[in-house]
Structures are given as C-alpha cells and as structure tokens.
C-alpha cells in the first residue's frame, strides 16, 4: 500500500516508526525530569546550572530528530547515521555527567535525588537507542548506496 509515490507502508517502515516513537517518548520523558529542577530554580530566583540546560538541549535535539525521522523521506537522507551517532555521543556524555553526580547518592527520603537517579538510567536507555539507530541507519545507507540497475547492472539505482 503506497503512502506517497515511492514510499511503501511496509513492515520495516512500521517498525522504524515505532522505534522513533519510543525515542521521542523517552526524550520527552527525560526533558520533563530535568525541567522540574530548572522550574524550581526559576521559581526560587536561583542560578540555573548549565548541566541542566545542556540536558534540555540534548533532549530537544533528540525529540526534534525523532519527529523528523517519522516523515517517510527524511530517513533516506544520505549520511543520516552520522547525526544519530552524534546524538549517541551526546546522550553518553549526559549519562556520564549526571551519572557521576547521582548514581552513588543515597536517596532515602529525597525524592529529587531519586528522580535524577532515575533520569540517569533513562539517559543510558536513550544512548543505547541512538546507538542502535545509528548502526541501523549506517547499514541502510550502505545497502542502498551500492544498488545497481537490474537491466545492465552498470547504472546506479
């Protein structure tokens, strides 16, 4: 069943779309987890730590990218795997940054610290998803890069 000219609604596209929806949902979840602290700092008139701003930038970039990849033709862009790999590196740096701060913390009775500890593990889940995405996009790009016409095999398809 064709969606647009040249775009088929295949099982692989449905799986791709579901994968991107999971990436979008997790990026928005992390955005909400970090935004709570930023909102509290703004309400108290306090300084907003740059680490939290960095986290919001990374989550926003990931959410926008996941939304764009839901558009059928966008995932066919050449070298899209490089952007996914960049997002993987950003998520790993976010995991390292906040993991250093919150993983070893005792959180008994401190809901804020427990929330941030949970956010760190969701950061890792996001990093893994963007790694899988990057590898998948690389394989897709390599597979489609070397296609030849079926008539003579000399022309590129």
Automatic annotation (TrEMBL):
UniProt KW keywords: Membrane, Transmembrane, Transmembrane helix
Organism encoding this protein: Diplocarpon coronariae
Domain of life assignment: Eukaryota
Residues that span the membrane, as ranges: 13-36, 48-71, 77-98, 119-141
This protein's name: MARVEL domain-containing protein
Keyword Hydrolase carried by entry: no
């Amino acid at each position: 069943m064709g969606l647009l000219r040249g775009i088929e609604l295949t099982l692989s596209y449905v799986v791709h779309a579901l994968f991107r929806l999971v990436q979008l949902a997790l990026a928005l979840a992390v955005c909400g987890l970090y935004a709570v602290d930023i909102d509290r700092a703004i309400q108290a008139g306090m300084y907003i730590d740059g680490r939290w701003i960095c986290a919001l930038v990374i989550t926003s970039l990931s959410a926008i990218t996941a939304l764009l990849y839901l558009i059928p033709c966008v995932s066919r862009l050449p070298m899209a795997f490089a952007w996914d790999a960049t997002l993987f590196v950003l998520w790993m740096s976010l995991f390292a940054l906040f993991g250093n701060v919150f993983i070893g913390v005792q959180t008994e009775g401190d809901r804020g610290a427990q929330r941030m500890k949970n956010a760190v593990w969701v950061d890792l889940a996001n990093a893994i998803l963007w790694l899988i995405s990057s590898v998948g996009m690389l394989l897709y790009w390599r597979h489609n890069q070397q296609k030849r016409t079926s008539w003579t095999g000399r022309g590129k398809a």
